[in-house]
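We treat protein structure as text, and this decision shapes the records that our systems exchange. The tokens are whole numbers drawn from a learned vocabulary of local backbone shapes. One such record is reproduced below, unchanged from the form in which we store it:
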Amino acid sequence: MKLLDVIGKIEGIQARGNLNLEINEIRCDSRLVGSGDMFVAIVGFKTDGHNYVQMAVEKGATVIAVEDGHYDITTIPENIVVLVAPDTRKLLALAACNYYGNPSREFKLVGVTGTKGKTTTTYMIKSILEKAGKKVGLIGTIANIIGDKVVESQRTTPESIDLQKMFREMADSKVDVVVMEVSSHSLALDRVYGCAFDIAVFTNLTQDHLDFHGTFDNYLAAKAKLFTMAKEGYVNCDDMYAKKLMNMATCPITTYGIDNNPYVAARDIIITNSYSDFKLPFNKVIERIKVDIPGRFTVYNALAAICVSVRLGADFQNIIEGLENIKVPGRSEIVPTTRNFTVMVDYAHSPDSLENILKAVKSYTKGKVICVFGCGGDRDNAKRPMMGEISGKIAGFTVITSDNPRTEKPEEIVKQIEVGIKNTNGKYKVIIDRKKAIEYALRMAERNDLVLVAGKGHETYQEINGEKHHFDDREVIAEALLHLPPEKIDNRGEKRGTKNRK
């Protein structure tokens, strides 16, 4: 494609050289640059792309884009086309849109943002719309899905150039709808800049990612950006930050929720150990909806999914069928077992999400709740004592362990968690090795107890010293269950956590 077609309508660019030349690919990673490529230098948090301009030139880049004031363009050879932009992140995003033919305009694009609930809500929307006969693409934390093709996800929201490439593949495969998780990072870093969002959804906002955003106001502002990009929005009005977000929005907003007089409201809610059930007005008739995921938060996620799906053409039967058997990996996921206690894996990795899942399981667990969790390294460390205190107050017993320590020492992370749990009367034990921690929790579990293994959910790795090692909580649990003593077997031979269990 000609460079002029890629950047022609992007404002504020200063150019040196021939804009009619052909470019092969757009890159923001100098390691991937090939002959005839355009390299966009991005100011990152760990490294600055401007430090790799000369490498990109040596590898054959014919176009170099730099941010105004960040690079001396006189050091770039005269035969190289140079672009100077006020913001190279936005340049990269818009150039990617143009390069791939603005694919997000060829289908309905739904963006879901919030601290928690994004993954479950997107899976619910996808399930309902597929029951309505729609072909749906999904982009998110667990995987990127195009029809039957599943690609492992590297981050919640891909970099703009990767995102637009994925959109093009989805458009070419004739998807009707793409539903995607939109992280606060992606909004702050303009990864989704230029995307044509039809619908935006806000689930909730609680403390998370403050190591990146710095302040809670910045975090909220990042989420609110989605509602300046979409044609319409749906907002959980029960969240304490909903009004602030709606004041920042520029699109029409419809509210959903339970308590604060929402436009779409759930009533007569029933929650058991295996499902959530509620009433909802639909076409002037009060209908009952059942979701096979327990918890009040499930009701909120389902309401959001219903709002979006109905807007895009789903009927009540599609909703019933799409939600009743929904399963989301690592989200309130019951691990099948013939033992006399229940085991659940959940992605809860923030104070609010841990508190919500612990309160939910405690409300229907006849025995005690045993919580196994840790905190990720190189992330917001202020939440560590908070999560320790939460588990100490709610769980019957806590096993503090390692999560993804990354480049931090897990022992230091655990000490910070202990600061919080020591403020409670909660009983706990520290076992740094996550496999051994899970095994310990399962050995101490008794009849009618529930073991919650929190923090990693769907993840199949543990990141230690910058390297990823295979680790799946569900696999570790399944293996450990095989070696438990026979007296822990359920005498009725039933699997705990199935929807017939009460």
The first helix runs from residue 3 to 7.
